[in-house]
Amino acid sequence: MEKTDIILGSAYLPPVSYFVALYSCRKAYIERYDHYMKQTYRNRCVIASADGPLSLTIPVEKTSEGKCAMKDVRVSEHGNWRHVHRNAFVAAYKQSPFFDYYADEFNSFFDRKYDFLYDFNMELIQWLCSQIDMQPELIPTTEYMEANEDVIDLREVIHPKKSAGEMTSFCHLVPYYQVFDSRHGFQPDLSIVDLLFNMGPESLLVLRNSVKL
Predict the structure, then answer these.
(1) Pick from 91, 68, 87: which is nearest to 79 by CA?
(2) Is residue 14 within 8 Å of residue 191, measured between CB atoms?
(3) Which terminus of the chain has a smaller tally of CB atoms within 10 A, N or C?
(4) For 142, which DSSP code?
């Protein structure tokens, strides 16, 4: 895939395909002005637990208005979710080859309280890029960005309800080692942390090899 500019939605520890797109692009515009929608990667990620795929969801504050721009969505403290998520990551990845290497810095994000979901997502993505040794130019949008011929719009392409096979326009996800693959087989397009904790520095090679040329 020739490097180009892309538009992505904000996402919480997004799937591997999201990072394949980041690897492939010159600039990535991260949308701030789209309407927040439930059951998307905006506030959920999927990891590999001992029992199979596990969705982890960040609760958000309800608004009195019917629609809310992503930039205005506030993180809720409901359900002690930070503790729940952190325990889930430990249970899923404590046996992975690289979890201990990244755990302290990764866990520090869950020690802080972020007011806005977009800010939390963005800081995690920036940290993940640095750990994988990627340097994409991430640009928060200043208004809703209309799709045009100069930019590839992936905002609705990378979605929990779409299978990895439906994203063949820009990626072909290659398998890699997973802790529970002997039990469940390879599970494609889980959260990027699944790749990072299992493959460490070789994550970049997996992303490179997943780019559809």
Answers:
(1) 87
(2) yes
(3) C
(4) S
CA–CA gap between residue 45 and residue 93 (Å, rounded): 15
Q: Which two tokens stand for residue 47?
A: 């990891």
Query: Is residue 89 within 8 Å of 81, Cβ to Cβ?
Result: no
pTM over 0.85: yes
DSSP-assigned letters across all residues of 112-136: S--SBHHHHHHHHHHHHHHHHT---
Closest by CA to 44, choosing from 34, 33, 52, 53, is 53
CA 93 distance to own-chain centroid: 17
Tokens (6 digits) for 185: 């087989």
Q: Quick check: 164 pLDDT over 70?
A: no
Distance between CA 13 and CA 138 in Å, rounded? 15
Q: Where are the alpha helices (DSSP H) in 13-162?
A: 16-24, 81-93, 99-108, 117-132
Helices (H) and strands (E) in the chain, counts: 7, 6
1-30 tens-digit pLDDT: 467 899 999 999 999 999 999 999 989 999
Q: How confident is the model at residue 188 (pLDDT cuts 50, 70, 90)?
A: very high
The answer to whether residues 95 and 138 touch, using CB atoms and an 8 Å cutoff, is no
**For residue 159, what is the DSSP state?**
-
Summarised one tens digit per residue, pLDDT across range 77-118 is 888 999 999 999 999 999 999 999 999 999 999 999 999 999
What integer is the mean pLDDT of 66-79?
A: 91
